Amino acid sequence: QVQLVESGGGLVQAGGSLRLSCAASGRALSNRGMGWFRQVPGKEREFVAGIGRNILYADSVKGRFTISRDNAKNTVFLQMNALKPEDTAVYYCAAGFEIIRHFISDYEYWGQGTQVTVSS
Fold it and tell me: What is the DSSP pairing of strand 10-13 with strand 114-119?
């Protein structure tokens, strides 16, 4: 069993930055792909970024967000720069297949989420 705990969310002004962290416990995740998703009320959860054998970003965050991982600490990060009000969402960390794709069904374990709010 894997437990994922996100942290680092909060309120930031447009143009600002936040760094999300996802700490995993229970099993090492060095051989798993790790992804970040986000969801706003009334909308489907959407892929943001993932890191595994490949790195993948949603078009909406390319050039602004950077995903990284520290396997020794079983932690994955999402550095978010140049934030926009439309980035406001609950951000979820997930663990799944090594080959990163944007499909929710590829991810087996999920965290509880952390709220990111970007004010205009």
Answer: parallel
pLDDT band at residue 29, thresholds of 50, 70 and 90? confident
Task: List phi, psi (to 5°) of 104.
Answer: -60, -35
Find all residues with CB under 8 Å of 44, minimum gap 6, and list them. none
Q: Over the stretch 40-53, which tens digit does the pLDDT of each residue have?
A: 999 999 999 999 99
Q: 3-state SS string over the chain? A: CCEEEEECCEEEECCCCEEEEEEEECCCCCCCEEEEEEECCCCCCEEEEEECCCEEECCCCCCCEEEEEEHHHCEEEEEECCCCHHHCEEEEEEEECCCCCCCHHHEEEECCCEEEEEEC
